[in-house]
Design goal:
This protein is of the alpha/beta class. The chain has a single domain (5-212), classed as P-loop containing nucleotide triphosphate hydrolases (Rossmann fold), CATH 3.40.50. 49% of the residues lie in helices and 15% in strands. The strands form two sheets. The chain has a five-stranded parallel beta sheet. Strand 4 (81-84) and strand 5 form a beta hairpin. The longest helix is centred in the C-terminal third of the chain and has 17 residues, at 173-189. The chain binds 2'-deoxycytidine-5'-monophosphate. The site of 2'-deoxycytidine-5'-monophosphate has 14 residues, from helix 2, helix 4 and helix 8.
C-alpha cells in the first residue's frame, strides 16, 4: 500500500520543494509547501508596517491573516499560488527582504501554532506531500513516510545563488552563503520546533545528486517497503 501522508523536512535549499513537487505530481498527491505560509506572514508584516521584532503584534497578525495555497493560477513558472487576504503574493514572498526576516517570524511560538493548526487541517484525510522544517516531527508525527533531505552548506548556497542569478539578481555567492549560515543557525536553534531529523525518517544527502537521482531513490524506497 502506498503511503498517503508523506513529509519532507530539511534545511534551506536542500531540494525539498523541487523534490516534493515532483513526488506529489508523480503520485497524484497534493503538494503543500508550508514555508510559503511563514513567508506570507512575514510579507504581511513588512507590507503593513508591523515591526517584525514585535512578537505580540506579528502573532496577532498571523492569527487573523487568511492564507490560501491553491493550484497555480498563472502560467509563469509558479508551483502554486499563495493568497494573503485574497491578494496574490506568490512572488512577493520570495524577495530578499522576506528571506532576511522569515526565520525570525517563524521562530515565534504563537505564529507557529497558528500555522500548524492550519497545516493539520489541510492534511486531514488527504493524500499529501507536505514540505517544511517540523512536518515529520511536530505537524504530522504519524505520517506514513518521513523524508529528510540535506546537503552541504556550500552546495545549498550554490543552488540558491544560481536561482537568484537566474532571476536577474546581482548577488555575490559569499553573501548567499553567509545568509544560509544565519538562517540555518536560527532554524536549528530556536526553542519551538527546531529543525531536526524526525524519528524514523529516511535521510538523503542530496549533495552532488541530480533531482532525478533523488526522486529515483525515494521511489525505490517506496517499492522496497511496499508489501
Ligand atoms: O522553506 P522556506 O525557505 O520557504 O522557509 C521559509 C522559512 O520558514 C524558513 O526560515 C524556515 C521556516 N519554516 C518553518 O519554520 N517551518 C516550516 N514548516 C516551514 C518553514
Amino acid at each position: 500500500m502506498k503511503p498517503s501522508t508523506i513529509t519532507i523536512d530539511g534545511p534551506v535549499a536542500s531540494g525539498k520543494s523541487t523534490i516534493g513537487e515532483m513526488l506529489a505530481r508523480h503520485l497524484g498527491y497534493l503538494y503543500f509547501d508550508t514555508g510559503a505560509m511563514y513567508r506570507a506572514v512575514t510579507w504581511a508584516a513588512l507590507a503593513r508596517g508591523v515591526p517584525v521584532e514585535d512578537e505580540a503584534a506579528v502573532t496577532a497578525l498571523a492569527r487573523q491573516l487568511h492564507i490560501d495555497i491553491t493550484p497555480p493560477t498563472a502560467d509563469d513558472g509558479r508551483q502554486y499560488t499563495v493568497l494573503a487576504d485574497g491578494e496574490d503574493v506568490t512572488w512577493a514572498i520570495r524577495t530578499p527582504e522576506v528571506d532576511a526576516h522569515v526565520s525570525v517570524v517563524s521562530a515565534y511560538s504563537g505564529v507557529r501554532w497558528a500555522m500548524v493548526a492550519q497545516q493539520r487541517r489541510i492534511a486531514q484525510g488527504r493524500r499529501v506531500v507536505m514540505v517544511g522544517r517540523d512536518i515529520g516531527s511536530v505537524v504530522l508525527p504519524d505520517a506514513d513516510l518521513k523524508l529528510y533531505l540535506d546537503a552541504t552548506p556550500e552546495e545549498r548556497a550554490r543552488r540558491r545563488w544560481l536561482e537568484r542569478r537566474a532571476r536577474g539578481e546581482n548577488v555575490a555567492y559569499e553573501e548567499v552563503l553567509a545568509m544560509m549560515w544565519r538562517r540555518d543557525e536560527i532554524d536549528s536553534h530556536r526553542t519551538v520546533s527546531p529543525l531536526r531529523i524526525p524519528d524514523g525518517a529516511l535521510v538523503i544527502d542530496t549533495t552532488g545528486l541530480s533531482v532525478e537521482e533523488v526522486l529515483a531513490r525515494i521511489l525505490q524506497h517506496l517499492e522496497e517497503t511496499d508489501p
